[in-house]
TrEMBL record:
Protein name: tRNA (cytosine(34)-C(5))-methyltransferase
Database matches in Gene3D superfamilies: Vaccinia Virus protein VP39
Organism: Upupa epops (Eurasian hoopoe)
Positions of the SAM-dependent MTase RsmB/NOP-type domain: 34-398
Listed Basic and acidic residues bias regions: 674-688, 701-714, 732-747
Composition skew (Low complexity), residue ranges: 433-442
A Pfam family: Pre-PUA_NSUN2
UniProt subcellular location: Nucleus; Secreted, Extracellular exosome
Chief subcellular location: nucleus
Record EC number: 2.1.1.203
One Gene Ontology molecular-function label: tRNA (cytidine-5-)-methyltransferase activity
Length: 764
């Protein structure tokens, strides 16, 4: 009844059982175990961010402190199982436990562990991600120089994995590869931004397009414009989501065969568009959180058939040892919601042919079917390793698609640049452009509309300004983004920055950008050279939501200290290799003081640190900790912090969760101190020196943005509420200048309705 709140959802669906029993999805004798697993809650899984230098320290902290405290612990009479590493995930960087969110939140014994998970997740050091969702990025085999497209990226957990793989070598601040993360839903794009922002990468761009008609992009190669082909594509399409029944229990009552029939066409169009943009020799992973062959093998078989040998399924049986998997199916039937079965397209009555399409059936040619090797697909069943259900297929492109035999290339020489920030689109009056041949298959009709347009529709881009595409060319939804403006080579703004921080001559200043064309530039952002190339050559055809990381913020009184811009913590690991001045090496005791006290006097620091800052001018500084291998009990990973040197004090500008992270890694108990810190925060600011008050004005942008996040969260729709939402890393300058106006703008930013997606489709 309703007396106790919402009625409990009954985990039964006769049509689901009838369909999958008949299709033979589950091996003989395992059906009861399969259904029992679906009715059990999904174990909580977490992944330690792999590319960070702190990954080993976090793993050590988890195993030696938090996991050890869970031994022999009981909550509500239920014994808490010790978290276990996922056997197939490399380097023990992924773990699962039977602890549900409900138990974590309500148990006092687990409050410290829960707070650790929340804080480290916000820092980007841990991701709460379903186990099977981690598989597709691993099977992409990403290298740091790969150009990657994530076609249906939100909410972004897989995108985060891809970014980590690009930054496998932490000593390379700008990998040659990049990730373009796309989603059709404007609101969910900001969830994507939140995930990407935590990783602080200059190599990620978030765009907002329909994946089935995502436009061809151009890049400049040796003075020529060429079509951008991707080395790796992740095609994690919208699906019916019956593999997620363990966490999305409403699927039990909503499941019907109609869901798969309605989504099949969209899935095939998205996959087709993906392989069109894949480079020869490139790899595309197609995945769904559905078990239905109509959404899985039928899409792959149709794609392979019309590729005429251009695509092949990769054999990944030797990859991810330890992962239990079922081979792909070669025979299946189609069922309507009334229980009627069809084994062949010719048996479908005319009045049903709008619901059921020929591509939903397996091909009849036995030889051709055998050559497809559909058994190379992977189906993950929930009862095999206590996971959700999932399907993965890995495709390799051997040659151009048959409708696109001529690889699209724009044969046009670019004029000489007058400066790094100026790019002029070539004129196509000479007719030298060669556009790609358009596909003739009906599944790809939507893709035709977004093929490369004649270059006479391009407009001249001056001053490195990359604005959103004109509304006449593309139907736009959601908030209108501010333009991306690259700093001109001779911009006087950069000279004092370069001198103040003694930037290395190799510093790529042409990759600096702002989000305003007029007025004071309040934030400076950094992108990689490759992302800059994409931005400058595609501003008319691409709606960019976000890109780059913040590296400098304007300080209201900064000019009197020699530089108007202070360093931003989120970009410090990218900037640090290029900075040759204003670096102070500190010991671990100094780091603890910096992270536990708001504005400590210089006298509290070690004598070595006091000597180093004695002759240094006031202003923004870099605080660097290098581990001492002779002291194995101390923190054994380097730390780089942004700070500020005052007349008599030294402070760190680090977001609160990041402070807590570093303190945990150093063995400092922060759980009890957190509330005390919050209570004393205002008192500490009042006790700070009057001379430092003006210095601090305009420096706490991170904290102000955090306040905006709280206001934004109340506006986010239920469909987008699976993970916390932060304000974008690339907010317009006018939003930081006036905080009251900023909160209004940000609320308006996220409250715009996006009409171009059906959020009822489950997307893991």
């Amino acid at each position: 009844g309703w007396s106790g709140g919402y009625p409990e959802i009954v985990k039964e669906n006769a049509l689901f059982e009838h369909d999958y029993r008949e299709l033979g999805i589950v091996p003989a004798g395992e059906w009861d175990a399969f259904m029992a697993a679906l009715r059990e809650p999904l174990p909580a899984t977490l992944r330690i961010t792999g590319y960070r230098s702190h990954a080993k320290e976090i793993l050590h902290c988890l195993k030696d402190k938090y996991f050890r405290e869970l031994q022999d612990l009981e909550v509500d009479g239920q014994k808490v199982e010790m978290p276990q590493p996922l056997s197939w995930y490399p380097d023990e960087l992924a773990w699962h436990t039977n602890l549900s969110r409900k138990i974590l939140r309500k148990s006092p014994q687990l409050e410290m562990f829960h707070q650790f998970l929340v804080s480290e997740t916000e820092c980007g050091n841990i991701s709460r991600q379903e186990a099977v969702s981690m598989i597709p990025p691993l099977l992409l085999n990403v290298n740091p120089d790969h150009k990657i497209l994530d076609m249906c990226a939100a909410p972004g957990s897989k995108t985060a994995q891809l970014i980590e793989m690009l930054h496998a070598d932490m000593n390379v601040p700008f990998p040659k590869g990049f990730v373009i993360a796309n989603d059709v839903d404007n609101k969910r794009c900001y969830l994507l931004v939140h995930q990407a922002k935590r990783l602080n990468s200059p190599c990620i761009m978030v765009v907002n397009h329909d994946a089935s008609s995502i436009p061809n992009l151009q890049i400049e190669v040796d003075g020529r414009k060429e079509i951008l082909f991707y080395d790796r594509i992740l095609c994690d399409v919208p699906c019916s989501g019956d593999g997620t029944m363990r966490k999305n229990i409403d699927v039990w009552k909503k499941w019907t065969t109609q869901n798969s029939l309605q989504l099949h066409g969209l899935q095939l169009r998205i996959a087709t568009r993906g392989v069109e943009q894949l480079a020869e020799g490139g790899r595309m992973v197609y995945s769904t959180c559905s078990l239905n062959p109509i959404e899985n093998e039928a899409v792959i078989a149709s794609l392979l058939e019309k590729s005429q040998g251009a695509l092949e399924l990769a054999d990944v049986s030797s990859e991810l040892p330890g992962l239990k998997r079922m081979p792909g199916m070669t025979k299946w039937k189609v069922m309507l919601k009334d229980g009627q079965w069809f084994e062949d397209w010719k048996d479908v009555p005319s009045n049903r042919q709008t619901q059921i399409r020929p591509t939903m059936f397996p091909i009849k040619d036995e030889e051709a079917l055998k050559a497809m090797h559909l058994e190379r697909c992977l189906r993950i069943l929930p009862h095999h390793q206590n996971t959700g259900g999932f399907f993965v297929a890995v495709l390799i492109k051997r040659s151009p698609m048959p409708w696109n035999k001529r690889q699209p290339r724009v044969h046009q020489k670019l004029p000489q640049r007058t400066g790094d920030a100026e790019v002029t689109a070539a004129n196509s009056d000479n007719g030298s452009e060669c556009t790609p041949e358009e596909p003739t298959l009906p599944e790809n009709e939507e893709s035709k509309k977004m093929q490369l347009q004649n270059s006479d529709t391009e407009q001249i881009k001056k001053g490195g300004v990359c604005g959103p595409p004109p509304s006449k060319k593309m139907k736009m939804f959601g908030f209108k983004e501010d333009p991306f403006v690259f700093l001109p080579e001779d911009d006087p703004l950069f000279v004092p920055i370069q001198n103040f921080y003694a930037l290395d001559s190799s510093f790529p200043k042409m990759n600096l950008l702002t989000r305003t064309q007029e007025g004071k530039k309040r934030q400076l952002y950094m992108v990689s050279k490759e992302i800059r190339n994409v931005l400058l050559n595609n501003s008319e055809k691409m709606k960019v939501i976000n890109t780059g990381i913040k590296v400098w913020s304007r300080n209201s009184d900064g000019e009197q200290f020699g530089c108007a811009f202070r360093l931003a913590q989120e970009g410090i690991y990218t900037l640090y290799p290029f900075i040759n001045a204003r670096i102070i090496n500190v010991c671990i005791e100094d780091v603890k003081i910096l992270l536990t006290q708001e504005n400590p006097f210089l006298s509290k620091f070690s004598s070595e640190t006091q000597k180093k800052v004695k002759d240094m001018a006031m202003g923004s500084i870099v605080l660097k900790y290098d581990p001492d291998p002779r002291k194995p009990d101390d923190l054994q990973c380097p730390i780089v912090l942004c700070g500020w040197q005052g007349k008599t004090s030294l402070r760190a500008f680090v977001p609160k969760n990041e402070r807590l992270h570093y303190l945990r890694m150093m063995g400092v108990e922060v759980f009890k101190a957190r509330r005390k810190e919050e209570e004393s925060e205002s008192k500490t600011k009042e006790d700070a020196q009057p001379g430092c008050a003006q210095t601090e004005e305009g420096m706490d942008v991170e904290d102000k943005e955090k306040d905006l996040v709280i206001k934004m969260e109340s506006e986010i729709s239920e469909a987008s509420s699976r993970s916390p939402v932060e304000s974008t890393a690339m907010e317009g300058e006018n939003k930081v200048e006036d905080l009251d106006q900023s909160s209004k703008d940000t609320n308006g930013h996220v409250s715009q309705e996006s009409n171009d997606t059906d959020t009822s489709n489950v997307k893991d």
